Amino acid sequence: MDGLINLGYLGLFIGTFLSGTVIPLSSDVLLIGILALGGNEWLCLLIATIGNWLGGMTSYGLGWLAKWEWLERWFDVKPEKLHKQKETVNKYGAGLALFAWVPAIGSILLIALGFYKVKPKTTTLLLLGVCFVRFLIWTLLHIHFA
């Protein structure tokens, strides 16, 4: 059973990492599953937080590497639209990282924050914090109701 749990920890890391990117996976379900199998609550919290945070930072980094010209040429996005989006992102700034957990839009927000080069240190810390709080809530619920 220990080998299965150890494999579960690896799966939890990989799954939470991937769900932090644009790949549609539920890291919450993965965390709850490994906890239900008897995983150590605090180790699961740590693994899920780090995996999801690194996945989110990967999305941020991909956005950082993107070029305006690519979006204009390959996705037929007009410069006016990019400027309008930049104004919106600048209005809310790194605080948008607090919504990285929201399905479907979280990764897009992180890509946009990277694309518009929004405060890397602040974005990194806010993302880490929101990942931790998200998984802490699930872990505490598991401890309370298990």
Description of the structure:
- The chain is an all-alpha fold and 146 residues long.
- It has seven helices and no strands.
- It has helices spanning 2-19, 27-36, 41-65, 68-74, 79-92, 106-115, 120-145.
- The longest helix is centred in the last third of the chain and has 26 residues, at 120-145.
- The two termini are 19 Å apart.
Task: Please state the structural category.
Answer: mainly alpha
The largest β sheet comes out as: none
| Morphology | elongated
Q: SSE string, helix = H, strand = E? A: HHHHHHH
The total strand number stands at 0
End-to-end distance: 19 Å
Helix content: over 70%
Strand % is under 5%
Output mean pLDDT: 92
Overall radius of gyration: 17 Å
| Low-confidence region ranges | none
Number of helices: 7
Provide keyphrases for this structure:
146 residues, mainly alpha, 7 helices
Write the SSE topology.
Elements: H1 2-19, H2 27-36, H3 41-65, H4 68-74, H5 79-92, H6 106-115, H7 120-145
Helix pairs in contact: 1-2, 1-3, 2-3, 2-7, 3-6, 3-7
Summarize this structure briefly.
The chain has 146 residues and is mainly α. The chain has helices at 2-19, 27-36, 41-65, 68-74, 79-92, 106-115, 120-145.
